[in-house]
Amino acid sequence: MTVSRKTVLVVGATGSIGRLVVEEAIGQGHTVRALVRTPDKARQLPSEAQVVIGDVTQPGKLAGAVDGIDAVVFTHGSDNAGKVGAESVDYGGVRNVLSALGTRTARIALMTSIGVTNRTGKYNRTTEAHDWKRRSERLVRASGLAYTIVRPGWFDYNGPDQHRLVLLQGDTRKAGDSSDGVIARCQIAGILVSSLISDHSLRKTFELVAVNGLAQENFDALFAALDEDPQGALDGVHDTANMPLNDEPKRVREDLNAMTRLRPPERGVGRERPPDERNLGGQGDKLV
Ligand SMILES: NC(=O)c1ccc[n+]([C@@H]2O[C@H](COP(=O)([O-])OP(=O)(O)OC[C@H]3O[C@@H](n4cnc5c(N)ncnc54)[C@H](OP(=O)(O)O)[C@@H]3O)[C@@H](O)[C@H]2O)c1
């Protein structure tokens, strides 16, 4: 049974989505801890939010952020910081926060992006942002923690009647522009926070867009209609298997191994052999 009042760490709490996640989580009755880089920016946040100062690229200073939390919502991003930012912030931030959590349990909601499995488009070739965000998804799946991964479409490109949420799987929209799908920032925040207390959003990875129509109120029904990621899989269910683990950088495989070793038995999966020692194949690489 999912506990409905949680202490939620929001990573990227001063960002365009993170701020809305903070408000939404407070509105849903959670205790919110906001990870903020600079005290000045913390002043924008509601007074109910507990502020903890930290930088996700400084792993040694994240212990206070994760102390006593029940859930993490990752909304951070390194936009315009190129390949280095994509690796150190988008990916490294997830690695460092999960590592700071150690063997403790927490519910995870991770925001990445629609098109995250598109490796050949100009955006990814220039920034590697898709690849590093996808690797952050893999870390979350490898952690054995209860998770939901949300890949939003283009923020706030909605037309006036585009409120009806559509959750997609397989990441097949790869135009690299808003024709891939649009979504309101506040709707992303609503889905991320609601996923934390839903049993139907567990181990689900999906793209999130909005189309013409009225907004739904029952997110559980939307989550329930989705396929789960296979137990132990590195990629989302129905994702293209175009990032073979054996071709991944050594440091990435080492991070995955380290994440796997953090899995406590109570996460329901027991200790696992490192992923690169496993027999991989079929629909994407698997941890089991
Ligand atoms: N725009 C779109 O249509 C779209 C669609 C799908 C996905 N996305 C992705 O969504 C992500 C977030 O977008 P956004 O518009 O919300 O970005 P944003 O407004 O720039 O917010 C990014 C957040 O991450 C924080 N952050 C950056 N580096 C950090 C670090 N080292 N340690 C701790 N926090 C750090 C920022 O803190 P500061 O406030 O201190 O800078 C800020 O709170 C981006 O990665 C983007 O690629 C965007």
Question: How would you describe what is shown here?
Answer:
It is a single chain. By secondary structure, the chain is an alpha/beta fold. The protein has a single domain (7-277), classed as NAD(P)-binding Rossmann-like Domain (Rossmann fold, 3-Layer(aba) Sandwich). The chain is built from nine helices and ten strands. The strands form two sheets. Strands 3-2-1-4-5-6-10-8 form an eight-stranded mixed beta sheet, with helices on both faces. A two-stranded parallel sheet has the order 7-9. α4 runs parallel beside α6 (129-142) and α6 (129-142) runs parallel beside α9 (250-261). Mean pLDDT is 92; it is low at 268-283. Residues 12-18, 37-38, 41, 55-57, 75-79, 89-90, 113, 152, 154-155 line the site of NADP nicotinamide-adenine-dinucleotide phosphate.
Task: Outline the fold blueprint.
Elements: E1 7-11, H1 18-27, E2 31-36, H2 39-42, E3 50-53, H3 63-66, E4 71-74, H4 82-101, E5 107-111, H5 122-127, H6 129-142, E6 147-152, E7 154-155, E8 164-168, E9 182-183, H7 185-195, E10 204-211, H8 219-224, H9 250-261
Parallel strand pairs: 1-2, 1-4, 2-3, 4-5, 5-6, 6-10, 7-9
Antiparallel strand pairs: 8-10
Helix pairs in contact: 1-7, 4-6, 6-9
Quick structural summary:
The chain is α/β, with parallel strands linked by helices and about 290 residues long.
- Low-confidence spans: 268-283
Global mean pLDDT: 92
CATH superfamily membership, which one? NAD(P)-binding Rossmann-like Domain
| CATH architectural arrangement | 3-Layer(aba) Sandwich
What is the CATH domain class? Alpha Beta
Q: Main sheet, how many strands, which sense, barrel?
A: 8 strands, mixed
State the secondary-structure class: alpha/beta
Chemical compounds bound to the protein: NADP nicotinamide-adenine-dinucleotide phosphate
Rounded radius of gyration (Å):
18 Å
Provide the spatial order of strands within the biggest beta sheet: 3-2-1-4-5-6-10-8
**How many individual helices?**
9
CATH topology: Rossmann fold
From the N-terminal CA to the C-terminal CA, the straight-line distance is 26 Å
Instruction: Please identify the oligomeric state.
Output: single chain
**What is the count of distinct domains?**
1
C-alpha geometry: globular
N-to-C SSE string, H for helix and E for strand: EHEHEHEHEHHEEEEHEHH
The helical percent reads 25-40%
**Strand composition percent:** 15-25%
